[in-house]
Amino acid sequence: MKAFFKIFFASFLAMLIFSILAVVAGLVILGAALQPSKPSIGSKALLVLDLSTAYPEQAKENPLSSFTGKTNYNTPGLYDIVRMIAHAKTDSTIKGIYIQCGSNGNGFAASEELRDALSDFRQSRKFVLAYGEAIDQKSYYVATAADKIYCHPQGGVDWNGFSATLTFMKGLLDKLEIQPQIFYAGKYKSATEPLRVTKMSDPNRAQTSELLGDLYNQFLTAASAARNIDTATLRSLSVNGSIQTANDALKYGLVDGLKYDDEMKSIIQQMIGLKEKDKINFVSMSTYAEAVHFKSNGDGKIALIYASGDIVDGKSQDETITSEEFTEMIRKARLDDNVKAIVFRVNSPGGSSLASDAIWREITLAKETKPVVVSMGNYAASGGYYIACNADSIFADRGTVTGSIGVFSVIPNLQPFFNNKLGITFDGVKTAPYADMGSVSRPLSETEKKFFQSSVDSIYSTFKQRVADGREKDIVYIDSIAQGHVYTGTRGLQLGLTDKIGGLQQAVECAARMAGGKNFYTAEYPEKKG
Question: Which residues are catalytic?
Fold first, then answer.
């Protein structure tokens, strides 16, 4: 009987393994069979840039595209879009670019890189048209790179100015009897203000006004150059609330015409040389990415490392910059003799100081062996600036939010909430007075509060020293511009926090020059997962 069961289970296991392998093999074969062939662009094509799509730093591929044969499930990365627009300049099949600019899902810095790429495309003498039903201000900023801007007759253009509204939760926490216990360094370090005050502090109000003012001036300057209207007039239009309808936008010269969708198509047909009943060959960015080779070729290798998201300790997590993964990634590029330079693309509002320091260390080591260039995206602030500050050269867009050199820590005390609201109590034992320090079940003692504030002050001091060393500035000067103050890329350049205004393409070109040549290709990290 034992022999029977032994043979039976062995046979069953073999059949199970064989079945699993057969299913896996079948899926692989099916996937290969359904893999979409390289799409054909055709003739007289119009490349479509849909601003409502939030283009990520790295391309996102949806596995469904392999089974459906539709490439539009994939989302190209921001740098892919920039390179595709550059490629389209010399692509004879592309006659122009059509910007769908109703809304804009991209940040100010990303919008700036898109706008710069479109402005460069116009040097090819191909046309760029922008159209939106209701055009918001970030969309309008990108649209100013077009030859003509049109909007829907019943739509309009938002021209009310920029604003920032913050939510404060201190009143809620007080009602719930939750004590946040906050420790911070830097009078402008405002991240904890919603937990500790009921309105903006004077320093935070000042820096937010400054930041918003810089971004608005950038917006008005772009619009002024494109529409040939002085910035004072454009500003007065928002101050007086002059733009309320599409007709107002046309009257004051913000758009070139009010058109319905069919009328826009007629304009395009005439520009391309099509007849009324001919179908317009609109090509999406995702389709174009599959159809053409837009990435550079060369013998030299530049490691392009995308650091996007919050900075956290430990292992890999989606949409985060983890210390373990990124230190290993940078180390790999540093030790690879084929890698001639590193471009570190930072798009992060910050996070863990410990993780930031670990990544900073690897950047410092890499800098000793090969050029390291940082490109800042929408954000490179707090920990995002920490990991960037020691590069050989730092590029930022005008609309990048950077700086915020400061530190904070929050240790919540939930004891009153649990006791008085939920009827939950706590008790326990410990071998030393501070064994449970930081527990949410009790308030910190005065001595423990000093411990936490001392830790925050120490990290802040280290942070400032890292910046001073990386930027080759006096620590006293760095302290004067630190204090948790946030800046635009324009102001950061003036203060010496960055080196040049430019996007990722300019950073890659700089890295190539520093490496001693021009014929380089980029190897992108994190590598795509199968």
Answer: 189, 382
